[in-house]
Amino acid sequence: MLISLASFIYKNAAKPVFFLFDPEFVHESITSLGEFVGKTPAKNIANAVYGKKSAAIKQTLLGITFESPMGLAAGFDYEAKLTQILPELGFGFQTVGTITNNAYDGNPRPRLGRLPKSKSLMVYKGFKNRGATWTAEKLGKKTFKIPIGISIGKTNDRTTNTQKSAIMDILQAFAVFEKANIKNAYYELNISCPNLFGNVTFYPPKNLDELLSAVDLIRIKKPIFIKMPIDQTNEQTRKMLDVIVKHKVAGVIFGNLQKDRTNPAIDQTEVKKFKNGNFSGLPTQKRSDELILLAYKKCKGKLLIIGCGGVFSPKDAYRKIKLGANLVQLITGLIYEGPMLVAKINQELPKLLEKDGYKNISEAVGTLN
Asked: Residue 14: which CATH number?
């Protein structure tokens, strides 16, 4: 009841006000507020309303316990502000970042835009973050109630412009975090941000193999997940997966932003407002689902799969799970549906599982194959 009431208030009162202001200003304000509340007893109130979870949605994967399959994707908390408040909102895990070896102030504005008719966001931040050293120092002081991951990508500058320099840059970022002895549960390796300088790409199998071979050599013990693109063909994706399973990679995330501005889910009157950037939310949903299914059929038992893209409801999350996702991430759904969306999904998933005759969420994974 309280979750439904909070959702109604958000959609009809808070969101219309937020949407009057610059989206990047709102984002920075909300994350700062979340950081503040996470340091106060007020977070206990949030936990009382949003934190309840059923044992039916609890899983242990790769030795990590996830009380909920719902996580915050990379791209939202790139200043590590929300690690203390998200557990109280019902999140089962969170990825910080993407973080790069060197800090980057972000691409030219506008870096964030709204497409309400398309249920999408224009994203053009280009790995805006404060760098590995700053982030490691901040995270090193904290303990976490839920599994925390760190997303790492290549520094977005004009000097990290070759395959060799990009790999060295990524390895240096990993080294910073490993040396800091942070209590993170996993890493993500983001090879798919479409908003970076230069022509470095890890999509060709040879390039991807070279990157992952270098990462193998630094002997990271924590699981590594690869953040995958959604703009590659099925055959190109299969070839990437063929490379990934040969290395010390625990899982894949499908996927990143939609680059195709002619995608049927994008309202053309909205997309024309933005010269640069790529698109999250509903325009990513169909391809994300297709690639989850593809990866599950090809790599079942070899890779953990995280579904990301176009999650706005419990049914969206459940569909990704039934297609083959062990876990689900979201961002854009929080903007359009409100921060109570995860609690709503946590509340509804056990009912969907019971309806289908499953006692635990793990039983539903891949059942649409």
From this structure: 3.20.20.70
Whether 247 is covered by a domain: the verdict is yes
Residue 185 lies in a domain: yes
The answer as to whether 369 is a domain residue is no
Q: What is the pLDDT of residue 195?
A: 67
Q: How many domains does the chain have?
A: 1
Instruction: Give tens-digit pLDDT for 318-329.
Output: 999 999 999 999
Domain that holds residue 188: 2-363
What pLDDT is stored for residue 51 in this prediction?
A: 86
Per-residue 3-state assignment (H helix, E strand, C coil) for the chain: CHHHHHHHHHHHHHHHHHCCCCHHHHHHHHHHHHHHHCCCCHHHHHHHHHCCCCHHHCEEECCEEECCCEEECCCCCCCCCCCCCHHHHCCCEEEEEEEECCCECCCCCCCEEEEHHHCEEEECCCCCECCHHHHHHHHCCCCCCCCEEEEEECCCCCCCCCHHHHHHHHHHHHHHHHHHCCCCCEEEEECCCCCCCCCCCCCCHHHHHHHHHHHHHCCCCCCEEEEECCCCCHHHHHHHHHHHCCCCCCEEEECCCECCCCCCCCCHHHHCCCCCCEECCHHHHHHHHHHHHHHHHHHCCCCEEEEECCCCCHHHHHHHHHHCCCEEEECHHHHHHCCCHHHHHHHHHHHHHHHCCCCCHHHCCCCCC
Tell me: the pLDDT tens digits for 94-125?
999 999 999 999 999 999 999 999 999 999 99
